[in-house]
């Protein structure tokens, strides 16, 4: 049985399910046996059964065709939110990432909604991506393994902060997070130095903080150019410390 994501983007490969004795699931009609893993040649990912507890769940295997992949259907799941969260976490620990149709890594969906879908992909090492397309509705979860030969997993592009944006983000922090006194950063002035410095190979903007009255130097802070991380620099010992919790969102 061949599995293609599309005529243009992928070549079909035979997916070989490893069979699991039906200890947790009851097969519809007594014919289908749930797989222990979904695999594509040398790449294997754990099946949904790997994170299921012993509950009465119905399983069925929907065979595909030359241009449609097989699907595995699990019904009667009592807590879909917990089931999906646990399973996706296991897939992430196995090297998978949530991706869109172009292979770009994206955020996980809200598993608490009544229906939805997510594609978890893993690089196969031979230039392709092995995906598990996971869809759920009500108490039923359908998993469709797909191999995409020409797909590549990539990170989303990130736009670098401007100097003024970095200054505004620092001023939005609380003085307590920055090790400063006072109730608001309105009591301080922030200036950026020219150029970038590296922290763990990540380029950072260097921001100096001064008190307004009297005007005195209070500290130096390093912000990654995507705005995702903030560090405090101790100039005396040339040591940086990451400041947490630093609530921020990188510019997309």
Automatic annotation (TrEMBL):
Would you tell me the protein name for this molecule? Lipoprotein
The domain of life for this entry's organism is Bacteria
Q: Which organism is it from?
A: Flavonifractor plautii
């Amino acid at each position: 049985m061949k599995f293609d994501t599309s005529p243009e983007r992928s070549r079909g490969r035979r997916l070989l399910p490893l069979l699991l004795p039906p200890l947790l699931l009851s097969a519809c009609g007594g014919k289908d046996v749930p797989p222990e893993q979904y695999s594509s040649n040398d790449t294997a990912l754990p099946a949904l059964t790997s994170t299921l507890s012993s509950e009465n769940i119905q399983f069925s295997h929907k065979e595909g065709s030359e241009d449609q992949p097989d699907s595995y259907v699990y019904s009667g799941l009592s807590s879909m939110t917990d089931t999906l969260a646990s399973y996706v976490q296991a897939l992430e620990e196995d090297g998978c990432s949530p991706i869109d149709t172009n292979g770009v890594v994206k955020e996980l969906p809200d598993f608490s909604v009544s229906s939805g879908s997510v594609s978890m992909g893993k690089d196969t090492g031979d230039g392709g991506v092995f995906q598990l397309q996971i869809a759920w509705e009500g108490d039923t979860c359908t998993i469709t393994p797909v191999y995409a030969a020409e797909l590549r997993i990539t990170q989303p592009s990130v736009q670098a902060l401007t100097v003024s944006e970095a200054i505004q983000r620092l001023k939005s922090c609380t003085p307590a997070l920055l090790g400063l006194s006072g109730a608001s950063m309105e009591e301080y002035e922030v200036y950026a130095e020219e150029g970038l410095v590296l922290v763990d190979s990540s380029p950072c903007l260097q921001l100096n903080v001064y008190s307004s009255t009297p005007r005195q130097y209070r500290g130096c802070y390093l912000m990654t150019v995507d705005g995702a991380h903030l560090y405090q620099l101790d100039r005396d010992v040339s040591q940086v410390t990451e400041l947490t919790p630093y609530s921020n969102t990188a510019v997309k």
